[in-house]
Amino acid sequence: MYRVGVVELVGYRFWTETLGSDREWIIQTTQAKLYNLLHKEFSNIGSFLHSLRYDYMVFVDGNSKPKKYINILNKASKTAPVPLRIAISHGKTLIEAQNRATKNLQSIEVQGLIFDVPNNCNISPIVAIHSDFNDFTNKIREVSIYETYLELSKFYVKLKKFIMKNGGLAFYLGGDNFVSFIPLRKLDKTIGFLKEIPCLKSGIGIHKIPRRALTLATKALDEIRENRENAKVKVLVFGENT
Questions:
Q1: Closest Cα partner for 190 from 219, 214, 160, 220?
Q2: Which of the residues in the chain have pLDDT under 50?
Q3: Which CATH superfamily, name and number, covers 2-116?
Q4: What topology is assigned to 126-237 in CATH?
Q5: Distance of alpha carbon 196 from alpha carbon 182, whole angstroms
Q6: Is there a contact between 206 and 235 (Cβ–Cβ < 8 Å)?
Q7: Which burial class, exposed, middle or buried, applies to 43 when counting CB atoms under 10 A from its CB (0-12, 13-18, 19+)?
């Protein structure tokens, strides 16, 4: 089983409309401050959080207890301009767990936590994939920065469709970096997909805790870079390579 959660800033749009016409800089700085706090707090408990629209965020959870998320809600309430609510659910795939969490979120009236995870839920090892492109920075010298960004955007759409179809979640990290989380049983199929992308290299980590899986994935990607290996993909498994 996998656990995924959703964070919502309740009434966010209405808050933005109270700020007047010269509001965008206020919105951006407030978003950055809150996202910084939440990212640190979720990382501290081994989860991986990513913003989808700033008023909605999704996170891949490990084996954290409800109390830890209540603590996060309490800390975030001191920074957030509106109430927050969090729903955490489980599923055979990450996308199934995310769908359940999204539905459960609507049953929270204003703020609070729904922890839809049975006591006997066994957490399965999760696969984290950290990908980037070879020598992508030099492409900026050949074409414009914006054109390279468009190329990355096209790849991101392709990546998200594949990962979602195989029960996972994919996110853009900035630069030419992407992270994906997939069920372990989809590893071989995903490696085949990644190898078909020209100039793409991917580090893969496997662990029950998302943050540790991503740490292994980044370590694998660093080893490909440092050793200038011909391999497009490298896998590190907790207990075997650490």
A1: 160
A2: 242
A3: Nucleotide cyclase, GGDEF domain (3.30.70.1230)
A4: Alpha-Beta Plaits (3.30.70)
A5: 18
A6: yes
A7: middle
